[in-house]
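Thread title: Can someone regenerate the structure for this chain?

I was given the following input by a collaborator and told the matching structure tokens would be attached. They weren't. Posting the sequence so someone can regenerate them.
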Amino acid sequence: MLDILKKLAQKGFIKNYNPDKKLYGEASYIGKWVFLDHKEIIMRYNAVIRGLINYYSFVDNKDSMNSLIKLFLRPSCAKTLARKFNLNSRAQVFKKFGPLLSFKDGKETTSLHIPSTFTRTRSFNDKNICEPSII
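Best answer:
Regenerated them for you:
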């Protein structure tokens, strides 16, 4: 788990990362993604989340992905969207776009992909592989 946090900190998803403390850091916005449109930002975060879930689909403590996604990736996405739309807080972002930071384009809705269960699957899901790999 610490390796994942270290990698996310290197990529800018976590700031003030310190593996020696109980609280490892806080979510950070991704500055280079602020200039993308809302849908593209959500799709990039979804690619990161799917990649982590697929890579760790065989481990016994996959349940820890739940906390990783909800404590760092979801708030990071909210902060990125807050920067993009000049909102003052994550709370305003969640109020405006909902808990999954949804983007509606006509009939199509793009939302942050957070699985309902994090149980061990022992199978690799190749249906949702995204190119290029972000992490």
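Strands lie at 14-15, 26-27, 103-105, 108-110.
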